[in-house]
Input
Amino acid sequence: MSYRLTVLGTGYLGATHAACMAALGFEVIGLDVDPVKVARLQAGELPIHEPGLEELLQQGLASGRLRFTTSYQEAAEFGDVHFICVGTPQKKGEYAADISYLDAVVESLAPHLTRECLVIGKSTVPVGTAQRLADKLARLSPAGDLVELAWNPEFLREGFAVRDTMHPDRIVLGVVSEKPEKVMREVYESMLAEGTPLIITDYPTAELVKVAANAFLATKISFINAMAEVCEAAHADVKDLSLALSFDERIGGRFLNPGLGFGGGCLPKDIRAFMARAGELGADQALTFLREVDAINMRRRARMVDLARELAGGSFRGCTVGVLGAAFKPNSDDIRDSPALDVAVNIREQGGKVTVYDPVALDNARMAHPALGYGRSALEAAKGAHVVLLLTEWQEFIDLDPEKLGEVVAARKIVDGRNALDAETWRAAGWHYRALGRP
Ligand code: UDX
Output
């Protein structure tokens, strides 16, 4: 049987999941409470920058297999499998995650569930949430026992969302009975046929896999950035150090790029929510190291500002700073907790005249930080600059010609916040080149 799917919440995760499931041949309804978002998606317009996704969305709509709605009743009547894909942002002024959107989905959906179906949680949640939501579903659904919850965390990376959804590294499913496995084996058949490992486990383990993975990745980044701090003190070179470490297969080179550190909508808030939840469980000691991981990460931003100020001659007053990058990482227009914008705002607050350029995140940046200056190209952002900062490693910046850039700046000084440029090439073109963690 071919199941009919709904995707509840059409943000980054949901929009991607809905379009990808339609591309796999399923009939899909995407639901969101925001009518503007639904109208845009229904018109084939993607509110985010994600390579390859808009095409999939339009193909899905054209095939008739994909549509969007704001009606829970419609979604409930249609779906055999309901995927919950809403966000769990950090609470204001707290480390904990705000899971109110998840509760809202369950409370809105459940009263309309009058027949057998599966509800699959994909959002990143504090451990214990799935069981709580399962109890709520059972309580509020007219179909009672015929409605079952399973937890299937999502590991997609922004910029690779389509690829990661269609060809995941692994599929994790937290269950309390055997039924969800049978259904999900059919839904994810194409992935399983490629040999993707399927790990069947209980709710809390499935929930923990996701936060543990993000905690590990954050730790790996902060580890190499801690080494960068030591390298700076010892006049050593963290880029060579990282390269040498990477050949040890037990360590590996991925997520070992030293620089300005991690940002985005996931890693920072997930490690904080993880600490908060461990505290509630009385296991806070186990995760005190994540406090350090967070602190190392935030120190990189401060160090970047210090380095820039040093190159500016000790003060930003009267100084023009060209900033390359606004997105939290390349190939994304996401500026949530972006290290690049954090640095730009800080320099402006210290009196610098900052002009930012980013290939796709400019509109988002301008909306969030209207007081910063913006340029329409790297050359425009660097025009008249006393210091240029590379803060997001877009390929376009890596490919910059140091000669051409040198012609527009006031002084050939650059800080490479992502260790992405070839130092020799830039120095040979007369640039004073500095990078985090390098002599
Ligand atoms: C992350 C996880 O990778 C993904 O599995 C999860 O589902 C969501 O969170 P994402 O937020 O898209 O994905 O970004 P990711 O590619 O992990 O990068 C996170 C941050 O780390 C970026 O700011 C990036 O610039 C930084 N980073 C990454 C480094 O500073 N150094 C590295 O070596 C790698």
User: Anything to note?
Assistant: The chain has a mean pLDDT of 97.
